[in-house]
Amino acid sequence: MDPHLNQSASATIETLLTPIEQALQQLQTLGVTSTAGLQQLVALDTATKAYAQALADFYVDTRRFTTEEESRMWTAGHDLHEQLSTKYTLGLHDLADGIIPTAEAPALVARLLFQRGRAALWDYFRYLPTPPIWWLETHKLYAFAERERFADHPVILYADEAPSTCAALYLQILLLGTLNRTNMSKRQIENVYHWLLPWASQITLDRQFNENIHLYYVNLEEDRSGRRIRNLDPTPACRYWSTEPMAREIARALDHIEQGAPQFTGLEPKLLRDLYSEWSRNDYKRQRRRDERIEIQEYACVAHGIYAVCQEVQAQSADNVLMDQNSELWKIENESGYGLGATLNATLNTWLKIGRLIALRKEHNKDICTIGVVRSIKQQDAGKVRVGIEILSHVTSYATLQELHDGVPTEHRFPGVFLPSDESRRLASSLLIPALEYHSGVELRLRLGRTAYRVRPRQTLEHQDDWVWTEIEVLGKVA
Asked: How does DSSP assign 78-113, residue by residue?
């Protein structure tokens, strides 16, 4: 690395982080128990907005970071929006208690939705899922705005921006949640986020389902984002929308690009076509069948065993790679949405056996740690074996766990991996944990980042010699 480039990046980081870290210190003591307190919060929010955006832009565009710099930037960027969300939530409680006038409700909910969306975006930069209950809490904000009949009222969040609405901000969050972000770069995720708000402003959330119009829906009583309508059982908690307005905008942009006009900033034609395919009624491409694979030629490094897998997922949250990059690489030869096939040297992988848990990082995208299980092993010539792997998830979070007895956590902590719900496979939220630590029916304290939850294991999906995969029920947040 050029030392001059390193010094320049470090200086920029300090310039961006100083006001944000100062704002985080102010937020620790700032109270929101009056209209004046809310005004102070809004002023602090406004004063730091430009720095927060500049930090995000620098973070997604620059690769020359040390581990410490990356961690500090991500923590500051994520925590700023998370803490602003927490303070605005307190303001919402004061609104309910009559301490803050009801006239503040539209702007308060809109600001809260905006901050939650930005906090989630920082999770997406690390290819992390949103925490448990996050979607339910977000749905409640929209439901409140809808119930009080201000969801579509224009609100000015910042003086230098056009007015928005709670409904558009909520749809922006939902739409980004429906996309497969593991196929997108950090810069693409950031750019798509910004283009979604004007697109979302052209969409309405409807209570009544019309199969000739609606392509997506969200259930306000479920802890998950919106999804494509397939086998739907409409309920009063469902809201429906059409993505055709967005598809038309994207088609228009692609036409302009083909004619030589400037394109959307950062949205390459290929990405635009992928978005059009996802959101157009006429050009939607269903996910491949589980047994349909495409031929590829790619290499990947692999870690194996529950504890090594946990370490890799933990390293991913810090944008790190622990795997030995000088070790023998697996040659990936075919891939589908739920599996892949690889060829490797049997003598260099003596640990290999059916049911072994692995973490895999491909050469072209080491940021993403894919979790899988060895399902088949076939001997080849010259000491080679062909391995079939079932993919459990591309999106994971490192978890720290403790058993709860009468609601009190034990001192013993152990690692695990949290897997978010997967609608395509009809899987609920689940955990991968060491087999030695698994006890059926025992409630657990689950810590993801800085937030802890009380969870109860439910159906055991798989039990191998050193790991267990179990569905969980999230019972609530705990201290």
From this structure: HHHHHHHHHHHHHHHHHHHTTSS-GGGHHHHHHHHH
Domain ranges of the chain: 3-198, 216-279, 294-315+324-393, 397-478
Predicted confidence (pLDDT) per residue in 306-321, tens digit = 999 999 999 876 655 5
Burial class of residue 452 (count of CB atoms within 10 Å of its CB; 0-12, 13-18, 19+): middle
Structural contact between residues 168 and 200, judged by C-beta atoms closer than 8 angstroms: yes
Domains 294-315+324-393 and 397-478 share a fold: yes
What pLDDT digit, counting tens, does each position of 251-298 carry? 888 887 776 655 555 567 778 888 888 888 775 444 444 456 688 888
105, 195 Cβ separation under 8 angstroms = no
Cβ–Cβ < 8 Å for 275, 245: no
Q: Does domain 397-478 have CATH number 2.40.10?
A: yes
Architecture of domain 294-315+324-393: Beta Barrel (2.40)
pLDDT in tens, 18-38: 999 999 999 998 877 778 888
Q: What is the pTM of this model?
A: 0.75
Q: What is the dihedral of CA 133, 138, 144, 146, to 10 degrees?
A: -130
Quick: pLDDT tens for 163-174: 999 999 999 999
Handedness of CA 308, 365, 297, 389 (dihedral sign): positive
Q: Are 145 and 167 in contact (CB under 8 A)?
A: yes
